[in-house]
Write a structure and sequence with these properties.
single chain, eleven-stranded antiparallel β-sheet, globular, 3 helices, outer membrane lipoprotein receptor (LolB), chain A, alpha+beta, 11 strands
Length: 206
Amino acid sequence: MRIKKIGLWILVIFLLGGCSPKTKEDLLYDVQKKLNQINSYTCKAEIKIHGNKDVQKYIVKQWFQKPNRYKLETIYPKHQKGKVTLFDGKRAWMYHPLIEQTFIMEDFSRSDEQNMFLGYFVKNYLESENVQIDQKTKEHKNYLLITAEIPGNHIYFHKQILWIDIDTKEPFLLEVYDASDHIRMSVKYDEFEYNPIIENDFFNIR
């Protein structure tokens, strides 16, 4: 009986040791593997633009297709509802419902709008020489925080911090900071879907 008890305790200790919490590096590997598998995604996003005096809030629908094609459709505020920006990787088509006019911008590849898309964060993260990893708990959920620099030495768009839900491996929040470490933009993701089927002509300029 004593031998059986000792054997049981050894088994328990072995199992507990095998279930030890993952390190930040382990979690980063899991998240990086998931992010690298992104070919497309859709989501609803709450965007806050932090100016020097006030904060502007928008709710949009996002579509993204690798490597750099995207569509934005504004849901809120009411006076911009239905506004659409469509980027095919080189130029952008924009529709403003309030004035019922469309515009085409030939040079849109370095637009600040790109900073709110997860696909561009992944690109910056892979190219960044300085990557920081942290863990935080917020509202009883655990997140992995990945900080990456934004190329170009832009004074207002210096670095990005992506919050990833450790349990679901889905993005929760993307924050953009300026060179003085003040937040300039935050994107809170909702209804996120990895790799939906998006037809190739979905991003074609009309």
